[in-house]
Amino acid sequence: MAILEVEDLKIYFPIKAGIFNRTVDHIKAVDGVSFAIEEGKTYGLVGESGSGKTTTGRGIIGLEHITAGSVKFNGKDITNKKKKTKAISRDIQMIFQDPYSSLNPRKRVRDIIAEPLRNYENLTKQEEKKRVQELLELVGLSPESILKYPHEFSGGQRQRIGIARAIALKPKLIIADEPVSALDVSVQAQVLNFMQDIQKELGLTYLFISHDLGIVKHMCDDIAIMYKGRYVEQGTKEEIFNHPQHIYTKRLVSAIPDIDPSNREKLFQFRQEVQEEYDESYNEYFDSEGLAYSLKPISETHLVALPEKG
Amino acid sequence: MGDKLLEIKNLITSFRIGDHYYAAVDNVSLTVNKNEVLGIVGESGSGKSALAFSVMGLHTKAKIEGSILFNGKDIVSLPKSELNGLRGDDMSMIFQDPLTALNPLMEIGAQISETLILHRPQMSLKERKDHVIELLNMVGIPRPEYVYEQFPHELSGGMRQRVIIAIAIANRPELLIADEPTTALDVTIQAQILDLVRKLKSEMGSGVILITHDLGVVAEMADRVAVMYAGQVVEIADVQTLFNNPKHPYTRSLLNSVPAEGQDKLHVIQGIVPALQNLPREGCRFAERIPWIESNTHEKDPVLHEISPGHFVRCTCYKHFYFPEEPKEAKVYGNTRG
């Protein structure tokens, strides 16, 4: 069963102007997005900056007001519930992009990780300490570090503190918003491996938001490509990377740098061709406002935003 | 190969922490030829940016030893006035962050003109404006006349980075240093910017130093690659050799930590890049991050060995290196990436 179902999600931000500060228009940050994530899977949401991928994640967890549409978690409607039942807000957690700004610099690691526990569980001081130390061990940090401050850790270690905080309540769904884009490659590898390990261990489901296609390819089962608040394509990893149908997806996939220098010339050639095709057929794939059409299924799992035929 | 444009010899750049100077760039020698892209890779803290800043003379508090020959002339000891004549003219730099590298209160046109006013004062107002618009055109900015009068906040990140590039190439530099030029950008824009740098290189025949931690970008752009760790160059080779036949444990570890086809588990380098004041100054600096390799395989005072023409590797530990997750026998036959 799908653990998360998002139906026609719309998040608009008002543009205010004039003396009465009236709303004159809206920015459609997310404009009709629907998807479902199966339990235990990793679902990748990809797009360039400004495509609305982060807003989608924030809307689901309740950090943005949802203009229209619905979000269901385990079959229960959680759209815009200010007071979500406690059970649901424990079950969905978020890992933020920047490990340098998402941890309070004045708090000790113990307090950072214990904060969710204090909100939801009545633990004695001793129990709490034990839990925090267990969590630290789980993320590969020494239990003695509970008295340290965030600045005493490296980027990768900080991101793991953020992860420890996110998994403290044993959530079912984690929304990971660019969890490794601020990190060096080797640290990236560490965090990604770790996310995969705890996924198996705890049976987690991930909504993995990223602009890095290489990492998405490595991590995700299903992938959706977003552009200007809409989906342009959705499918399995195989479908998106090996048989992209939408010109936008093709262009994105062709832009990934290849680590083998012998493919250089081929890649430039290919990129050029795709760019030409993109320029020529832009109007066929996008409507008069430059937005993607609604999704049409081309196979059971593969959806592409194509115009109505005829 | 080619004409030597820049020759860095035994460069040591040290910063003062407390009462001591610590070398962030520790005895680095490199050359950049004309019409060549030299890629420099390494994690943050490896000294690659400190190296670039040393070449540009942008360190104000660092102690710089050794020599940097630009067209045969040592620029380390050059007085500031003469250095200013070079910077922005014969050599220039593309900075990492397009958001902070531009003055938010100045129109785009004026910011690009600045470097022209400084280095080509004889240009008339009209000539200058024409040249700026031509530059904007060159870096692929649509409607350059319009952008000329815009402010940085009105442009997207990719457009701003193009403006930075336009400033850097305004005087057709012989040496262009690009410090993580695309790190802040989306992939499609990254592809366009890299394409642009490549085009400029071949049109102007400039030498380019490309500093990045993104191995994919290096694989696409560089002619030769230097890998830096803890202030030292640990491996240099032409790009094909470096990616197909890497030798140094650090290079191999880095390459293995990038997600690739059919790879289940990524390689994680143990430990972290040590902070400047804690750098091991004796023996192989990478040794503490590969503790499963026997210590007698490291050199006492590791030097660069030329193992094939143009391919240099520091320390002897590479001969005995293997990944802990792979069977030990496989190591002898060397080739790591199939």
UniProtKB/TrEMBL annotation, chain A:
Any Pfam family the entry gives: oligo_HPY
GO BP annotations listed: peptide transport; transmembrane transport
CDD domains: ABC_NikE_OppD_transporters
SUPFAM superfamilies: P-loop containing nucleoside triphosphate hydrolases (SSF52540)
UniProt keyword annotations, A-Z: ATP-binding, Nucleotide-binding, Transport
Similarity annotation: Belongs to the ABC transporter superfamily.
Protein name: ABC transporter ATP-binding protein
Lineage: Bacteria, Bacillati, Bacillota, Bacilli, Bacillales
Automatic annotation (TrEMBL), chain B:
Chief localisation class: membrane
Coiled coil: none
GO biological process, one term: peptide transport
Organism: Oceanobacillus halophilus
Location of this chain's protein in the cell: Cell membrane
Listed PROSITE patterns: ABC_TRANSPORTER_1, ABC_TRANSPORTER_2
Residue ranges constituting the ABC transporter domain according to the UniProt record: 6-255
Key word Chloroplast present: no
Top-rank taxon: Bacteria
Single Gene Ontology MF annotation: ATP binding
Membrane topology: Peripheral membrane protein
Name of this chain's protein: ABC transporter ATP-binding protein
Cited InterPro entries: AAA+_ATPase, ABC_Ni/Peptide_Import, ABC_transporter-like_ATP-bd, ABC_transporter-like_CS, Oligopep_ABC_C, P-loop_NTPase
Entry keyword set: ATP-binding, Cell membrane, Membrane, Nucleotide-binding, Transport
GO cellular component: plasma membrane
Pfam families recorded: ABC_tran, oligo_HPY
NCBIfam families associated with the record: oligo_HPY (TIGR01727)
Family statement: Belongs to the ABC transporter superfamily.
